[in-house]
Fold this protein.
Amino acid sequence: MVKIIQPAGILDSINGNILRREVIDAVEAGTKTILIDCQAVELVDSSGLGVLVMSLKKVRDVGGRLVLCSINDQLRMLLELTDMDSVFEIFADQEAFSATSTS
Amino acid sequence: MTNPATILENSPSFIGNLRSRLKKRTLLFRYLAEINLILGAWYLQWRIGHSINFNALWLAIPLLAAEIYSYLGGVMFTIGLWRPLERQVRSFDQLSPPIHRENWALVDVFITCYNEPVDLVEQTTRAALAMDYPVTKLRVYVLDDGNSPEMRAMTQQLGLEDLKSPLLQAEVKRIKAERSQLVEQLDQLKQMMPEAEAAEQFVQSIPEASQPSEKFLKTFHHLLQHGSNHTSITAQLSAEQRKLETTIHQKELELTDLVRCRYIARPKPAGKPHHAKAGNINYAIFSGETTGEFILTLDADHIPRRQFLKRILPYFYTYNLAKGRYESNQIAFVQTPQNFYNLPPHDPFGHRANLFYGPIQQGKDGLNSAFYTGTNAVLRREALVSVGLKYFSAAFAKDETRLDEFDLIGGMSSSSITEDMNTAMRLHGAGWKSIYHNELLAEGLAPDDLSSTLKQRLRWAQGTIQVLLQENPWKKPGLTFWQRLQYFQTMYSYFSGFATFILIVCPILYFFTGVIPVNAYGSDFALHFFPAFVINRLTFTAATWGIQASEVWRSEQYAIALFPLFIQAVWSVFTKRPIKFQVTPKQRQSGIYLRLVLPQLIIFGLTLLGIAWSLLRFAMGSLPDPWVHLLNSAWAIYNLSLLWAVIRAAVWQPKEVA
């Protein structure tokens, strides 16, 4: 079962906490794979990025998997500048992800 | 006290909000320093070329090395003082154009503590809550690494007390009023719902509008729907209802947010690295409980003054003329001085640091390499986290299991026991800038016994050398040449123990064995040495203008007298012994500590014996070269007066309060 989370707007420390809670809820409900679809995200600051890493940690703790998709240029640049693109699994969009998970 | 940054709260004397200028008397200092360096070089070339005693190379070479080491240190020290900045700033509420209070940034205060007495932390926390800043924009977190129930209780108690204060109660009233207004709107909306539903059903049930009145109703209905993307008025109303409910929820959150005094204690599972103070701060950053744009870090005992934030925040903004608004700039942190309110008279332990929190920091500021000292500084969260993430991902690339401790290592550097210096160097390396603001804004406690003082100094020395080995500033990308030099100079200075040892031992060796590393102690020596020495003292006086001579002397004494500790520090880091972060005790550890200064005592005793031995032989008329002995005795007495400070400190006891 894949849980898809779609945050929207500006992902900073405040909105990040909402996202983090969603991830924690999903993990506690037994979800093993979480896809964060960033289609509607306008901007991520480093605190928001920190939240994403904390979420990754939470999911990995229970042996799960967390992936990102549909990231915009700003987030891509931030990920590259902080070398975080090697930490996250990133897909072009939801279809690209489901293509890999079904095959 | 150092010259504080001039307070310009209401001064119309300059345009703009910030101004910096070269410190007064800098040109005099530069002039003297140039002569000093030239004379020093002249002395050195004479030492190398004309005065090495080839009959005692085993001593002559180390002495020469020690002198070259000292000269190079002096060159770097001079460069560090070359461009000291004096900054002037308008307070945050006096900016022109102003920033509306509603838009002031959210600030988190982190008070880091570890087993300090509760009432000490309470004093700091109270002062932090009393800082002059909008109450809804300030949050004070006690980061308790000791995880003590008393500390938690104190924090909760203070949180409640704070909430009762008139300022907070006014906020409570305002938010409650806003909320009840919203609730009223919601109620009205809910009452309208059934009527609206019925009306809509009625309009829709009209088969074909024949009557003019029915036609009108239909058109009116269309009009109402027009411009909204909802299919019906009922849908529109329920969307409105949801919106209201979220806003009401937000108001409730705002109310809970008014508890400004909060407590965070991280879990410390046994067998896992905790990363000391850096881990404590990082946990708070990533715990999700803190969201401030700026972070003021305070050690548990450092009591901030009311105006702290107002004085410091202006540095983080630049007015963009084209856009007509303030924007965040590239300043990552602003450091302020440290001073202590518990220093005994004459400062036996040499804690007063007006030389460091004065010319040295101002000089570093001029080279964009202000030193972050872990307390009394405001940091930009964005800078800290973005740089921290970068280093985390590098660590992750090597070892994926480090994800487990991300929340302890993802922000402030945790790879050294002087996390503050290392963090600043990483920020500078990533292109962020820094400021040193020379106005005393918080005062704390200094250790008032020798044991704690030595522990603190040892940690600084070990940590600094550790950073040199782990992140050599010369190899670190992103730093400017001057920044590299500044960081290297600090690290270099901690190797002084070896040079000091040689310089102190030379006269002793001469008294007892007659071995002399220099082959010309006559007028030739005087001609080369004394001009350099005199001008060196003058240069130093110019550089430390405004600081009490006794304080400068005390700093010099400690720089020399702690040589065994500096040697120990270098030794322990290079032999890779495990180094523990030890929190400096805040309570006096009473006792007499002659054991701790044993090497200094031995040297002190031998020097005294040597002088006595020379005098004895002189009295008996069997002393060869009395002038050379006199010169060595003068040198030895100078050494004694330097060493005396730490021996005095070992037996120092506070005066009983009558």
Summary: The longest helix of chain A spans residues 13-28. Chain A is about 50% helix and 25% strand.
